[in-house]
Each structure stands twice: as structure tokens, then as C-alpha cells.
Amino acid sequence: MAIKEDHNRFRDIIKGRVKEDLKKYVSHGEMIGKREKEFVKIPLPHIDIPTFRYGPKQRGGVGQGDGKSGDGVGEPGDGSGQGQAGSEPGEHLLEVELSIEELADILGEKLELPRILPKGNKNIDSVKTKYTGLAPVGPESLRHFKSSYKNALKRYVSSGLYNPEDPVIIPIRRDLEYRTYKKVVKPQTKAVVIYMMDVSGSMGEEQKEIVRIESFWINAWLKKHYKGLETRFIIHDAAAKEVDEETFFRTSESGGTLISSAYKLCQNIIEMDYPIHEWNVYPFHFSDGDNWSSEDTRYCLKLLTEFFLPNSNVFCYGQVESKYGSGQFLKDLQKEFPDDERIILSQIESRDKILDSIRDFLGKGK
Predict the structure, then answer these.
(1) Which domains does the chain have, with CATH numbers?
(2) What is the full per-residue pLDDT of the chain (366 aa) written as tens digits?
(3) What is the pTM (predicted TM-score) of this model?
(4) C-alpha pair distances (Å), 123 with each of 118, 186, 187
(5) For the chain, counts of helices (H) and of strands (E)
(6) How far apart are CA 112 and CA 105, in angstroms?
(7) What is the CA radius of gyration of the chain?
(8) C-alpha distances in angstroms, 353 versus 10, 220, 321?
């Protein structure tokens, strides 16, 4: 019990250190690089669990070795500083494993994020029946024929009544078994995050790395509130296509940018796979703000007004700073939707601004 308490205290210390240095971990992206399913490994210097450490064998024990009574302990040598290089390995950083949910808790505490309130009636709980085992009593409608028959057969064989020539098995009361069940309350909340990213020539590796880090933390927070969160990925330049997560962050194109191509594909995915009366929908679009023409921008604004804003929990646009991008699309959105809380806009100038951007997107609890 004492060891378990020590480990719990140690984990509390770890969480405190991660929370204290969260900006560093987020901006460096160390956590994402060491992700394993629902856990991440975090390198933490200067923290360790107190333990007994034993020296190499055959080096003597306490109070052993050459010397006479009255000799000082640890007296200086000749001061030459000469000696052979050590053969033992040096100390390494401690890697600590934390779950995605624990990281979401740390993020929420650090940024003081409110809990998400699913829109509409999607947060109504449903009660389902789950069969859990067998019992000797129960209603006839739940009688388990196979188990009851096996019990009767065992009784016939063990008592010598079984006749292979006339294999008639008649269960009696003590042979019968019935299915047991319990009521399980399951939340009906379902959510999908659809990430869209401009991969044209002006979006470099640094810009995509910022999007990769930010999407990891956004997913961590949303998974805390929606079990079984689904994620879809769309890349676009002048044309859009759906890809897997790895392709999403590795693809680079050299063509122009047509933002409406991504918005139209995103709309098709929502209409085909995610009925708005059943799903909480979170579209996220990341770009450096360039678009092919003002005409296409007007079409994007039309899609936002007529489809995305009425049918999404919130539409999020993150503009990543790029020396090749004009940044005009953010200005157009700010002008068109100055006070509409259904759309959240964030300017991400560098890695140091990722936490501020996450607070922009998640700070309203939508």
C-alpha cells in the first residue's frame, strides 16, 4: 500500500511538472513523437523515484578496504586528475508514461478550459440491456436452452440413464439456466472532427508541424468529452481529397490554392456519413491565408453561411504564419463574421502561439 501511495504521489509530481512546463512540451512536440496508442512517453529531467542503488559487485562493503584507524574519509589525492575513462553508462532522462486523458486534464487545468456542452439533444443518455451471465432462476423467456440441455445431459450420463439407442433428454427444474442482464446507461453523444489543411507550396514543413501539434491537443480534449471520437482528414491545393492521418501531415504540393474545394468535400462527407441530428460536428481548417481568387472566397463565405455554421458545433479556422502567404483569408472572415460565435478564428504566428490558439478554439466550451 505504501509503494502504491508513493507512485501516486510521484505521478502527481509528474503532472505538476508537465503542467508547469506545458508550453515547452507543446512547442517542441516531444509528446507526439513518443505516442503509443492512448499513451505518450514524456522525457522528464531531474525527477526520479527514490530507490536503493547498489554498487558493482566485489568492491567491498561499508567500512571495508585499505586504511588505518584514524585516517580521514575522502582525503584528497595527488590532484593530477589523471585516470581512465569510465566504462559505465551515464544517467539518462526519465521517460514517464501518461494517458491521453491525463494530458487532456493537464491542458484543461492549464488553459482553464470549460467543459464542452454537446449541442441539441445529442447528450441524452440511452439505456441498453447487456446480458452478463447465467442464473438458476429467471423468466421463461430468458431460458438458455443450450446450457439447460447440457446440464440435463450431464445428469443423465452421470446417473447411467443415458441410452444412445434412444437419446431422449428431458430437463428437470434443477437443470434449467436463465440469462441474466443489467441495464447499461450509454451516452448517445457522437462527434467527428474533420481537419482540412492547405498543402500548397506556401505551406512549409514548419507550418504543417504546427498544425500536427495543435490537432493532437485538440483531439485529446475532444476525446475527453466524446468517447469514440471520429477523425477525418482533407488536404487541398487547387483540388481536395480525403487522406489518412500520416498522409495529411506528410503531403506537400506546389500548385495554387482553391479553398472551396476542401469545403465542398467536407460538406459531402458530413451529409453522407454524419447526420447533423445525431452528430456533433467540428470542422477545422488550417491555411496560410492564400486563396486563388476573391470569387472563390465569396463562394467559401456562402458555404459557411448556408451550411457549416448552421450544422456545426463550431467552425474553426487557424491561420498559420508563412512568409509566402498573404494572410488575406483571415481578414475576409473577420470582416464577414465580426460577431458570430459559431465561427472561431485564430492566428498562429509560431509554435509559441499554439497554446493561445488552442484556448481560442476550445475556450468557449462548444
Answers:
(1) 1-50+93-112 (no CATH), 125-185 (no CATH), 191-362 (3.40.50.410)
(2) 455 555 566 566 666 777 676 767 677 765 665 555 666 766 655 445 555 555 555 555 555 556 566 665 555 555 555 555 545 554 445 566 788 888 888 888 888 888 876 765 554 455 667 777 888 888 888 888 889 989 988 988 888 888 888 888 889 888 999 988 877 655 556 899 999 999 987 788 888 889 988 988 898 888 888 877 899 999 999 899 999 988 887 877 767 889 999 999 999 999 999 998 889 999 999 999 989 899 999 999 999 999 999 999 999 999 998 877 778 999 999 999 999 999 999 999 999 999 999 999 999 888
(3) 0.66
(4) 6, 10, 7
(5) 12, 11
(6) 10
(7) 31
(8) 30, 18, 11
**130 contacts 182 by C-beta, under 8 angstroms:** yes
**CA angle 49–53–57, rounded 5-degree value:** 160
Q: Are 153 and 169 in contact (CB under 8 A)?
A: yes
For cell 472561431, what's the residue?
344
Give dist(CA 173, CA 153) in Å, integer.
13
Q: Residue 105 corresponds to which cell in the numbers above?
A: 486534464
Name the one residue in this structure whose C-alpha cell is 464542452: 116
Cell of 205: 514543413
Handedness of CA 157, 162, 165, 168 (dihedral sign): negative
At 165, which helix (H) or strand (E)?
none
